[in-house]
Amino acid sequence: MDPDFWHLRWRENRIGFHQAAANAMLVKHIDALDLPAGARIFLPLCGKTNDIGWLMSQGYRVAGAELSRLAIDQLFQDLGLTPEITELGALTRFSAANIDIFVGDILALTADLLGPIDASYDRAALVALPRDMRARYADHMARITANAPQFLICFEYDQSLMTGPPFSVNADEVARVYAAQYRLTDHDAADVAGGLKGICPAIERVWLLR
Description:
It contains seven helices and nine strands. The chain has helices at about 5-10, 25-30, 50-55, 70-80, 110-115, 130-145, 170-180, and strands at about 40-45, 60-65, 85-90, 90-95, 100-105, 120, 150-155, 185-190, 205-210.
C-alpha cells in the first residue's frame, strides 16, 4: 500500500476505520489469550485506536507501530500523556509509562527495537494490506514478535462489492500467510452491524494464532 495514501487519509481526517470505543471482540475475548498481568501487547498499524487506552486500563503494557506521526500525536493527546520522543534511524519512538509506539514503516521495525512481546493484537493491519503484501507482512510479524500468540480480527465480504481497504480476508487467506508459523483457531464471528462502511454485508471474525 502506498504510504502517501495513508498520510493523506490522516491529513484529511478520512479515518472511518477509527472506532469511537474499544473493539467489542477484543473486550469480549481478550481473556482467550490467557495473558499474565502486565503483559506487553503489540498492535501493528495501530493508528490512534481506543483499543490502546482500553488495554492500558486493564493493566496491560502496549507497543505499537504506525506510519502516521499525526495519528500518534493525536493518540498521546487523547491518552493525556506527554511522550518522550527518540529518533531511531528510519523510525521514531514515542514512549511514556507502559506504552511505546514506533512511527514509520513497520517493515523497518526489528525485534531488538521492539523488545519482548507477550502477544500481538491485529485489528487493522492484515486487512489493510493488498494480497501481494500480506505474506511478507506476516513473516515479519512472526519474526519481530518471536511467534508470540496473536489475536487477529479479519473481515469477510464479497470483494467485488467494495475495493477496500479494509480488504476481505477469509480463512484460506489467513492460512496462506500464517499456517506455516501458527496453529490457527477460528474463535468467534459476528455480522458487521449495518454492513461494512454501509456498503455491503460483512462478517467480523476473530482468529487466535498460537
